[in-house]
What does this fold into?
Amino acid sequence: MIGEHHRIGGFPVPPRVIVVGGGAGGIGAAGGAKQAAPEASVTVFTEFEDVAYSPCGIPYVHGREIDDFASLFLADKEAYVQAGIDIHYQTRVAAIDLDRQTVRVATDGDEQEVPYDRLVVATGFDYADPGVPGSDLGGLYYVKNIRQAMEWDKVLDSVSRAVVVEASPLGLEMTTALVHRGIETHLIDPRPWPLADVADPDIMAPVEESWAELGVITHLNTKLVGFVGDGQVRAVATSDGELPCELAVVCTHKQPNNMLARAAGLDIGSTGGLVVDERMETSHSGVFAAGDCVELPHGVTWVPVQGLSGSHAYAQGKVAGANAAGGNRRYAPVYVPWAMVAGKWMIGGVSFGETLASALGIPYVMGVADGISRARYYPGVRKTRVKLLGEPGTLRLIGAQMVGGEGIKERADFLAMAVRTGVTLEDLAWMENVYSPPIGALNEPIALAAQNALSRLQS
Ligand SMILES: Cc1cc2nc3c(=O)[nH]c(=O)nc-3n(C[C@H](O)[C@H](O)[C@H](O)COP(=O)(O)OP(=O)(O)OC[C@H]3O[C@@H](n4cnc5c(N)ncnc54)[C@H](O)[C@@H]3O)c2cc1C
It folds into this structure.
């Protein structure tokens, strides 16, 4: 029976924790609750057939870098039973009643009220509705659920031409995946360069060149007008004409999925994400939230941001779950390190590049360097371009962007910690670094970029 429990003297011992959502946020929360209070009763409801798989790996199975979907599962269902986490698959939570502390769950047409002591909302994201005619046609692929991805993977075998809609992070990954798969791939985006909301044009230029070498046809400054077809998509209509295709991969930006929380009366912030405090507690005491459904302050601007990554969702879930079970953990403001493979390059950064800083009106000083990833004589050496942004006056690092062949993720993680801890361009200019011919050059590109910033200030 769902929610069976004992109450001792008014306070729930052990607490009944209900988690809505089985993504990175929800599974992090379930694990966090069990870690904090092994005796807690932890119940997860998810609409999906599975939990504990990595959606992040899906583009790489489509691109054939990974052999099969099976390897994307991180644990089997029995592992959760063993851990004492009660997961209800294909079970939708239809409503939350904050006053009565219950959720209404729906399975196979049946509805029942389930009581909780503490609730974690981890309902994640939806792709933004493209809002154009033809959005209900077949052949439009929204990459998310692994079972659906397995079906779409079979469809890809018979696709010769595909259009990726929007050069978002997922759009970049799917573009590279489809062209690796041997499909004629078109990418459309209304902005002047890919990932323009986040990345600077000089960071994306090598990616665009490498896509062209791989055969990707990019249509920038090109708006989506509609999907054309009769039941099934046969073309994508753009501001520049029609692009015939058998498949359109819709990679619009991520929006918080907060219908349930909004209907319950939880506070929603300016981004559409749930407002939480540093304990990941919502506006209602005893109700926590984590993952892509929340918004959090950015550590440099204090502006709320939303729709971060799976690693953020998981870490937030751990904090929310631990606190729901009686713990007292904090989740710090975010600096958002990011990195990914795009075409033949890795790109990444932290906080802002020049474009985003300028758009937000954040003053900065800047340094840039084109270094190398290994000793210049070592086979496989690649260019590593690093741009660093510092706060005028203090020279504290506030952002970075990079493109290179390797080591971008590690630099992004390092630089995020540098921003968080107040490291300056002066510190970075004279940093210690590893020199080992196969893995690192004598001159670390980060140090070169910081030296460049200092010399620009002196000139
Ligand atoms: C294709 C793809 C690639 C990605 N690549 C990366 C990557 O490279 N790196 C990275 O860090 N992250 C990546 N992500 C992660 C992603 O961008 C999100 O940050 C992450 O999925 C957020 O996790 P979440 O738990 O907040 O939400 P979601 O993953 O959206 O999970 C939401 C959960 O809530 C459930 N749910 C929603 N409403 C209800 C309801 N009413 N009742 C019951 N259950 C409900 C759903 O069934 C689901 O289990 C990728 C995701 C995808 C899909």
